[in-house]
Amino acid sequence: MEKRVFFTHTFLPYLLVAPQIVIIYIFFLWPASQALIQSFLQEDPFGLSTEFVWFDNFAYIFHDKFYMKSLYTTALFSLAVAGIAMVFALFLAVMADRVIRGATAYKTLIVWPYAVAPAVAAVLWMFMFNPTVGIIVFFLKAHGYAWNHVLNGGQAFLLVVIASAWKRISYNFLFFLAGLQTVPKTLIEAAAIDGAKPFRRFWDITFPLLTPTTFFLLVMNIIYAFFETFGVIHQITKGGPNHATEILVYKVFRDGFLSLDLGGSAAQSVILMAIVILLTVFQFRYIETKVHY
Fold first, then answer.
1. What does residue 210 show for φ and ψ, rounded to 5 degrees?
2. Sign (positive/negative) of CA torsion 58, 61, 67, 68?
3. How many CB atoms lie under 10 A from the CB of residue 150?
4. Contact, 268 vs 67, CB < 8 A?
5. What's the number of CA atoms in the CB half-sphere (13 Å) around residue 38?
6. How far, in Å, are 1, 14, 19, 36, 270 from residue 22 at the CA level?
7. For residue 183, which of 147, 168, 189, 198 sits 20 to 30 Å off, Cα-Cα?
8. Residue 20: helix, strand or coil by DSSP?
9. CATH level 3 topology of 64-289
10. Which residue ranges does UniProt annotate as crossing the membrane (predicted)?
11. Residue ranges of domains in the chain
């Protein structure tokens, strides 16, 4: 028999949800509304004069070659980070799920990088790939490969992708491992008895049952690549060289806080917010149809 909870006090339900509503208003609705209003304004850097310019800020953005380059860089960067982080995390989760001895220590060591701050992770990779004293660069030079991400845009892009993906692997690992532990072992054993090889058992049985977890991580990793990688990029490349690693969120920072183009950066933030919302809706509308619950 279904049981339902009824609140006898009229204001109790509103009181219970009030803290969450206040947090959403302060940290999302109010800043978003201010960015939307400011995107239609043209202000001087000192805030002494303001002019209403309608859609001029948006028109300028889409005629800016650096913004279009940043849009392309963001798309490529987010796909690369999400793909690398999820593939490696799934592989490690499958291996960890099979470990019997020392499983706790093995899983703990994999999870540790998640506790590292983005700036610290960036410094770690920046030192390892330092063109002068980096240990990885030393081995690359020994094999005849010249590395200098300070001057080479492609190498800089590769470095921030590796650093950002490495930072995210631990997060994905936790969810994939939890998902693997919910897969009924009887199904795997039955497939093994029928003669299915390990890869076939994983692809035909295990992975379809992991699609809800995979879909959730896909959405979260795309959002992570769009926003939370700012610290990594700022510490390693600062968007350079020649805008090679300048993703959309970093361009908002550069134009707003460094160039003091407040209206233009507000318009960029509105466009970025719209892109993320549309991308999330697209994922739930079309990709979720492939998910097996």
1. -95, 0
2. positive
3. 15
4. yes
5. 23
6. 36, 11, 5, 20, 22
7. 168
8. helix
9. MetI-like fold (1.10.3720)
10. 12-30, 71-94, 115-140, 146-166, 207-227, 266-287
11. 64-289
* Helix, strand or coil, per DSSP, at residue 73: helix
Give the rounded distance of the alpha carbon of 212 from its chain centre: 18
Q: How far apart are CA 264 and CA 91, in angstroms?
A: 43
Give the pLDDT confidence score for residue 2 in this predicted structure: 56
Q: Are 164 and 86 in contact (CB under 8 A)?
A: no
Nearest alpha carbon to residue 163 among 131, 129, 217, 125: 125
Number of other residues whose CB lies within 10 A of the CB of residue 256:
19
Q: What's the chain's average pLDDT? A: 87
Residue 3 is given by DSSP the state: -
Residues forming a β-bridge with 42: 51
Q: Fill in the DSSP letter of residue 115.
A: G
What are the beta bridge partners of residue 41?
52
Per-residue tokens: 164:
């950002």
Burial class (CB in 10 A: 0-12, 13-18, 19+), 136: middle
Measure the CA–CA gap between 175 and 160, rounded to whole angstroms.
24
What is the CB-side half-sphere exposure of residue 216 using CA atoms within 13 A?
13
CB atoms within 10 A of CB 110: 19
12 Cβ neighbours under 8 A, 6+ residues apart:
none
Q: 20 — phi, psi (to 5°)?
A: -70, -40
CB 147 within 8 A of CB 141: yes
Residue 293 reports pLDDT greater than 60: no
Higher pLDDT, 230 or 286: 230
| pLDDT exceeds 60 at position 233 | yes
Question: Do the Cβ atoms of 266 and 57 come closer than 8 Å?
Answer: yes
Measured distance CA(259)–CA(257) in Å, rounded: 6
On the 0-12 / 13-18 / 19+ scale of CB atoms within 10 A, 66 is middle
Is the distance from CB of 230 to CB of 160 less than 8 angstroms? no
Per-residue pLDDT, averaged over 263-278, amounts to: 90
